[in-house]
Amino acid sequence: MAKTSKATIADVARLAGVSTATAGRVLGRYGYTREETREQVLRAASKLGYRTNALARSLITGKTRTIGVVAGDIQNPFYASILRGIADVVERRDFGLLIVNSDENLDKEIRAVNLLLEKQVDGLIVSPCDTRNARHLRDLHAAGLPLVLLDRSVAGLEVDRVGIDNIAAAERAVSVLLSAGHRRIGLVGEMLEEQEGGFDAFIDRGLAGEVLSTDTLYPSWQRLLGYLRAHRQANVAVDVSLIRRVGAYSAAVARDVARALIDRPDRPSAVFATDGTMSEGVIGAVSGAGLTLPGELSLVCFDDLDWMGFLPPGISTMAQPRLAMGETAASMLLARIEGSQDPMRAVVMRADFIERGSIAAGPTR
Predict the structure, then answer these.
(1) How confident is the model at residue 24 (pLDDT cuts 50, 70, 90)?
(2) What confidence score (pLDDT) does residue 365 get?
(3) What's the pLDDT tens digit per position in 51-62?
(4) Which domains, and CATH codes, for the chain?
(5) Which residue in 32, 151, 242, 284 has the fewest CB atoms around it within 10 Å?
């Protein structure tokens, strides 16, 4: 029989010598079929060039074997590595992957989720913009759609999630600077979401160790707490004017904020940048100001991006296990899709410090 792109299940069944129902089970990957019969059907399908009709299969099984991911910014290397981890897992399991960008905007995130629901995905991985309410995600969970949260959690939403211990990681990064003798350490971070009482009140609570709930804070706010905790543990006073809130996921805005910080006559001797985007902005500011690392300014970043190892003298940073985060999120979601009723899990991973050449000894008193 000649190969044709329009072969039907009936054609495959006829060539394999089985019933149409049996061919449908094999090609639709549902129900039980003897291995010998399965191989006959697959050989026939290959010979005919048969392509599975995913829509028809989903009408029979109620599943599309597709998952959706809503990422904050797919251009950001942080998400790019995570998406690779997700893709590696779902492809090995013969699932499809649909990726939508939210640009860290709640309205866009809601539209992205609705679009993926229209595509009949079997489950979702979401890095939520709204960590307090997220009504759209609560509705999904209530409706029974498998859902995994990535990098952030939502208050009171009991679903699987994957993240890292941002507070401990930031504390480690800043402690390295303090141990090197730095006492005036600047911080550049987005800290986009508003906090109860405002920015200054949050810092006051952080310095006093009075921030009670941290799970639903944006990562940059958690890393600010790590910065404050490192100072508190070292018994070093914090100059609050050295903490700079960018208020946007923008390297260009971060560059301007960092430039204002390092242009002060009493500039800090070191800077901590809370993620890759902020790090890019800080490096731009340092270059624009004509300062050398680490001779005139020490720097520790968060997230290990390719350029940090190439740019002389090499940038010391906290490296997140981004690939493993994506792999874990995908595995958790697929387990739920396949019917797992295990209790909700929160997988908190560790970031590792990578020491390069951007830290010098702090100024002598």
Answers:
(1) confident
(2) 57
(3) 766 555 554 555
(4) 9-61 (1.10.260.40), 66-164+322-349 (3.40.50.2300), 166-319 (3.40.50.2300)
(5) 32
